[in-house]
Amino acid sequence: MSRIGLVPFQIASLRRLKQRRRAPLHPIIFRWDLDKTYLKTEFDSLRELMRVPFESAQDKVAVPGAVPLIKGLRETATQAGRDVRVYFMSASPPQIAKAIKQKLVLDGVEHDGIVFKDQLQHLVRGRFRNLREQVGFKLTELLKSRSRMPSDSREILFGDDWESDAIIYSLYADILGGRIASDELGDVLRTIGVDPQLIAEAQERAAAAERVEAVEKIYINLERRTPPTRFRGLGPRLVPTFNYFQTAACLFEAAYLALPAVARVAQTLV
């Protein structure tokens, strides 16, 4: 972007930031998927999948731009006097929790919680299809976590195009916004092939969830280089991006990120 083109962009963003500061500062929650969104986890093959639990914190590599982006979001919200929380969610087993937490410490990333998927439980019970099915697991965990959040909090969600994050996050946003009924949710989850027990839990938690437009934006990292046009049906709330500089620019425009933080994200991509 040229320096000339940046001036009106900055002015418009500063105006939005001032307007946002005059308005009530709702608590803000940033939710991140872990694999392919924060970490460059490789599990295309069974061999790669089996190797994941044995990787050390030093073996794990963050997606370029993810670390300065997360730090910048917390820093910007804190400087504005806003209650900010960062959560991670992973479909990987809890056996890798120690390495993941050590990796976050090495990266200097503060977080308020991480959820892992208990794959061993599915193996013991013979639920092999649940090993790869993530919609039911992630949706129920999101709804479970939401019940513990401040009722006036707002959320920004980060995922990727590797699994079903776009669908999961959109369902979550529509449940909280009161746009999908319990029976409709059940039909959708049955069509996807979610485990019946998880469908029942999702419907129960959805019925108990407070109705509020909590999800402001959904950012999908196009790790698979999926054409962005495929996400049009999910509405303007969902923003597909090819790298975290694009994501950072959008967040700056929405006054969630300061300009120096955008520069730090860009620097990691050079």
Provide an overview of this structure:
With 270 residues, the protein is α/β, with parallel strands linked by helices. The chain has a single domain, classed as Rossmann fold (3-Layer(aba) Sandwich), CATH 3.40.50. Helix content is 47%, strand content 12%. The protein has eleven helices and six strands. A six-stranded parallel sheet has the order 3-2-1-4-5-6, sandwiched between helices. Strand 2, helix 4 (97-107) and strand 3 form a beta-alpha-beta unit. Helix 6 packs parallel to helix 9 (196-208), helix 8 (182-192) packs antiparallel against helix 9 and helix 10 (244-253) packs antiparallel against helix 11. The longest helix is centred in the first third of the chain and has 20 residues, at 3-22. The radius of gyration is 19 Å and the shape is globular.
- This entry's quaternary arrangement is single chain
Question: Uncertain segments of ≥5 residues (pLDDT<50)?
Answer: 1-5
Number of helices: 11
Strand proportion, as a percent range, falls in 5-15%
The total number of structural domains is 1
CATH third-tier fold name: Rossmann fold
Order of helices and strands: HEHHEHEHHEHHHEEHH
Helices and strands: which structural class? alpha/beta
**Level-1 CATH class name:** Alpha Beta
Based on DSSP secondary structure assignment, what is the total number of beta strands? 6
Please state the overall shape, judged from the principal axes of the Cα atoms.
Answer: globular
The side-by-side strand order for the widest beta sheet comes to: 3-2-1-4-5-6
Helix content: 40-55%
Examine the secondary-structure arrangement and name the CATH architecture: 3-Layer(aba) Sandwich
Largest sheet: 6 strands, parallel
